[in-house]
Specification:
By secondary structure, the protein is an alpha+beta fold. The protein is built from 2 helices and 19 strands. It has a 5-stranded antiparallel sheet with strand order 1-2-3-5-7, covered by helices on one side. A 4-stranded antiparallel sheet has the order 12-13-14-15, with no helix packed on it. A two-stranded parallel sheet has the order 4-6. It is elongated and about 145 Å long.
């Protein structure tokens, strides 16, 4: 009887099969790693965009930015996500919040105690104050997950402290030019003009989590500056300077996997729409800290104009007169309304303004007149009606005299 003997794999064949299987597994693992990174990256982009949007709405609604939250608190803590501000800029920095003037600028123009060496304005660094933003935007549907990146770590939030002051409001918001945070590229060049003028920065510390706080806030992930890397500037919390660079995941000093977004106002650097404006009308107010000159190089007033200003249907000329808008005639001196202009003669009172002149009326009618009180009474006061000098009808107030 013929039969076929079973034959197994030779060592060479088995080796080839294992190599092929290994390549397949390695390729699949690599694809899965890329896939999971892409998911986390896209979720991070969504989170920072939402956080930036909500912070901007908070500023537009309240006139200020929120202070950072304590990044070390877990979500179960009563103060989790609540902003931590200081009422005076000279007070100690709130617990676990970094306050620094290193790398910032003197945006408010003031100097002295509390504003740092050379007058630089402080920057506060912590976590996104998600609860404070939720409370400030009660009518907005907000999901708290925008405070975390795609790697389940808390976003870092840095803000120019002077723009968080509670003295600002919707009708008097923090001036946009008060931003004091700097942002540079991988070569150390500032990416904004003027330098150190950003309002706030949001940072995801990327896939390696270097410098990021965990969701429960219990651990500051190690490796922020050891070994030193380009991204170390974003997590050292020692200055007001941040880096926005190209992604570079190879080991070495140029390693960078952070995601950084910032907020800064450009369109409203000088003028801002007033929230109290009636429907259909545009009211603007000046947000500049100093004087503004229009046709005037050296303004000495809050708004100093060299020339004419149109005010609805009239013109205000540069010699302080209100005139007709097209003919610039029929002008009226401002001094007739308020100031030290022409006055009525003695014994006369002003009853109006006509043809750029005061209309004056005698206080009393001309000629003598008698006022009599009954016997035993004396005159206490009298009132007359002297309309156009025609009517004279005194109202007499007499009172009993003697004991």
């Amino acid at each position: 009887m013929d039969y076929v003997r079973g034959r197994g794999f030779t060592v060479i064949e088995l080796s080839i099969a294992l190599i092929i299987l290994g390549l397949f597994i390695a390729g699949a693992a690599s694809m899965y790693t890329i896939y999971t990174y892409r998911i986390a990256y896209e979720q991070t982009i969504e989170s920072v965009d939402q956080a930036r949007n909500f912070i901007t709405i908070f500023y537009e609604s309240t006139g200020r930015y929120p202070c950072p939250a304590d990044p070390t608190l877990p979500q179960s803590h009563l103060l989790y996500g609540q902003e931590q501000c200081r009422t005076q800029i000279t007070n100690p920095c709130p617990a676990n919040i970094a306050c620094t003037t290193d790398g910032s600028r003197n945006a408010d123009g003031r100097t002295g105690a509390g504003y740092g060496a050379g007058g630089s304005d402080p920057v506060m660094i912590g976590a996104v104050p998600v609860k404070t933003i939720n409370q400030g935007l009660a009518n907005v549907d907000i999901q708290a997950r925008f405070a975390f990146d795609g790697w389940n770590m808390k976003l870092t939030y840095a803000v120019s402290e002077i723009m968080t002051q509670s003295s600002y409001g919707p009708l008097s918001p923090a001036p946009p030019q008060l931003g004091a945070i700097d942002l540079v590229d991988e070569f150390g060049n500032s990416v904004i003009e003027p330098a150190s003028s950003i309002h706030y920065v949001l940072v995801s510390h990327g896939q390696n989590n270097a410098g990021a706080y965990t969701r429960d806030g219990s651990v500051l992930m190690p490796g922020c500056s050891t070994p030193p890397r380009l991204e170390s500037e974003n997590c050292n919390r020692s200055n007001a300077r941040f880096v926005s660079a190209l992604q570079y995941h190879n080991s070495g000093p140029q390693y960078y996997d952070d995601i950084v977004v910032y907020g800064r106002s450009f369109a409203r650097s000088l003028w801002r729409r007033a929230a109290a404006a009636p429907g259909g009308q545009l009211w603007l107010h000046n947000t500049n800290l100093e004087n503004v000159g229009i046709g005037e190089a050296d303004p000495v007033h809050k708004l100093h104009v060299a020339g004419n200003i149109k005010a609805e249907i009239s013109m205000i000329s540069d010699d302080d007169r209100f005139c007709h808008e097209t003919t610039m005639s029929a002008c009226m001196e401002v001094e007739f309304i308020a100031g030290s202009g022409d006055m009525c003669p003695d014994g006369h009172v002003a009853t109006g303004i006509q043809n750029n002149s005061l209309r004056c009326q005698p206080l009393l009618p001309s000629g003598a007149f008698n006022i009599d009180c009954p016997p035993g009474q004396g005159l206490r006061s009298f009132r007359i009606n002297n309309v156009g000098g025609v009517e004279f009808d005194p109202a007499i107030d007499c009172a009993t005299t003697g004991p």
